[in-house]
Amino acid sequence: MAPHSINSLQQFLGRQARKPVPEPLLALAEAASQRHDGVVAVLFYGSCLRSGRIDEGLADLYLLVDDYQRALDNVLQARLNRLLPPNVFYLETLYQGQTLRAKYAVVSLEDFVNANQHWFHSYFWARFAQPTRLVRVRDPRVEAEITTAFVAAVHNFVTATLPRMNGPFSSRELWIRGLELTYASELRSERPGTAGRLYDADPRYFDVLTAAVLQPLRQEADGPRYLFPVTSWERLRSSALWTLRKLQGKALSVLRLLKALLTFSNGMDYILWKIHRHSGVTVDIPPTLRRFPPLAAIYAIFKALRQGGFR
């Protein structure tokens, strides 16, 4: 991207991130932050952001911390978080007599920036190319680092998707294709139309990002469309890279599920819910096996594999 495009994109993403969030979300962010020392920022993204209904779902938060050991009293959790970020936790808190729920991830600011800028796999940059709110932040320096990471996430998402596009394409077609590629690279088998609904929830957001990154490729016939010439070699290379991301992502997803046994209260139930949420596969664990969570988790993953849950 040209420097002026980077600057305009950074300003736009900064404004988007600073948009206000519902009051109940502030209560969840405060409750999550109280659990960990050294929190430098709290991010909010996902389905509850799109719907605006914090009271009806499981809010998705990211806590960025300055040091894993400081943030996590458990030495094993800290080491696992450093080895395979993020660690995921479950939270319930009361707000005006109502129980609010959140799933929040803990990752260091350094890892967050590095993952969005440099990671081969799309786990981070596919998420944070999407609308995200900066619920709280320690200081302007941290905010600037986070916004820079958002810019990198958008750039990585768009440039990784481009070689998979055929002929002139719209912003909507680009994002749907990219989202479908990233879904296939994790433990998720989203329902048909999920990517389209995500785009349609905030089309202006995605259109602005596309225009900022792909301005030189823009064509105006029949509305804004883009054309990116791709050679056969580039298309083949891109296909191979996404195949590698898919293989890597499935393995990392399984490892993260196993790691959740150490971070979630009722971690086994979370694993079963996660498998069903993203694959549609329901796995029943024999009561006797539930007494041994690691074995139960391996059993659940094996059963889901047998039923086609990790396509």
The portion of residues assigned to helices is: 40-55%
Low-confidence stretches: none
Shape descriptor: globular
Q: Biggest sheet, open or closed, and with what strands and sense?
A: 5 strands, mixed
Span between N and C termini?
Answer: 35 Å
> How much of the residues is beta strand, in percent?
5-15%
Q: Which strands sit side by side, in order, in the main sheet?
A: 3-4-2-1-5
Q: Tell me the total number of β-strands.
A: 7
- Counting H and I runs of at least 4 residues, what is the number of helices? 14
Mean pLDDT, as a whole number? Answer: 87
Radius of gyration: 20 Å
Structural class: alpha+beta
Q: What order do the SSEs take from the amino end to the carboxyl end, as H and E?
A: HHEHEHHEEHHEHHHHEEHHH
Describe the structure.
55% of the residues lie in helices and 14% in strands. The chain is α+β, with helices and mostly antiparallel strands. A 5-stranded mixed beta sheet has the order 3-4-2-1-5. It has a two-stranded antiparallel sheet with strand order 6-7. Strand 3 and strand 4 form a beta hairpin. Helix 9 packs across helix 10 (194-200). The longest helix has 29 residues, at 232-260. The two termini are 35 Å apart. The mean pLDDT is 87.
Q: Could you write a compact summary of the structure shown?
A:
The protein is an alpha+beta fold. The chain is built from 14 helices and seven strands. β6 and β7 form a beta hairpin.
